[in-house]
Design brief:
alpha+beta; six-stranded mixed sheet; three-stranded antiparallel sheet; globular
């Protein structure tokens, strides 16, 4: 190898190392990936559902999430879609991540018009908090559960039906889009009865006319054929 080739190779290696440390710094390469590499393992191999979701949050939120405390269970009958939520995740983080990839409207306002401060999260109450990691199971259908059409949020509460929250529904949207490039609730609305918003219940659906994810509110006593909840099972 001549001197010019050696200098060229050193320059290329220096460039790759610089890019490597940049990715470590911005979270693209996580500590676990580094450990796997040093142990001569494939740092990008996904072997279970926890790793799949850890990679999802790394990719879209730059979060180094550890779901090792989440237990692996069999699916619950037709509840075949599992959603993992990390400790500390906020609604505004989710809205911001979604908005980087497709349009979202919140209460009739394009997120571009809401500004950097985001929405007022104190107005949103959820039956599950993100104080700890947790997981849920849902049916995983494109449209919300048909069995709950024409039933209001208050009626579902009286029946003790465990329903998806707004944050969980938005995470499901982003994960489904990541997997398929498509959207949920093209013809129905998901009533997020696991959440309340200023005395109303949030609803989410894809607005074909405006080509955006529409988040709005629904009266607790209202019901119709196209507005349905997604039932949740906890492990």
């Amino acid at each position: 190898m001549n001197k010019q080739q050696m200098i060229g190779n050193m320059s290329a290696c220096a460039g790759m190392m610089k890019d490597f440390w940049r990715q470590v710094g911005d979270g693209s390469i996580t500590k676990q990936m580094f450990v796997d590499f040093l142990q001569h393992k494939n740092p990008f191999a996904i072997t279970d559902i926890r790793q799949e979701w850890q990679e999802f949050y790394r990719k879209y939120f730059r979060m180094d999430v550890d779901f090792s405390d989440i237990q692996i269970h069999e699916d619950y009958a037709d509840f075949v879609r599992r959603i993992l939520i990390p400790k500390g995740l906020t609604l505004n983080q989710v809205i911001k991540a979604i908005h980087k990839h497709f349009n979202i409207s919140f209460g009739g306002y394009d997120i571009n018009k809401i500004g950097n401060h985001g929405i007022n999260e104190s107005a949103v109450c959820n039956i599950r908090s993100t104080k700890l990691n947790y997981d849920i199971y849902i049916r995983g259908l494109v449209e919300a559960d048909e069995k709950f059409k024409d039933i209001s949020a208050n009626q579902l509460k009286e029946r003790g039906v465990n329903c998806i929250t707004l944050l969980e529904r938005l995470i499901y949207e982003l994960k489904y889009w990541d997997e398929t490039g498509q959207h949920l609730d093209l013809h129905t609305l998901t009533i997020c009865a696991g959440s309340s918003l200023d005395g109303f219940v949030p609803n989410v659906g894809w607005c074909l006319a405006k080509d955006w994810l529409d988040v709005d509110s629904y009266d607790l006593d209202d019901s119709c054929d196209s507005a349905r909840v997604r039932e949740v099972v906890r492990s």
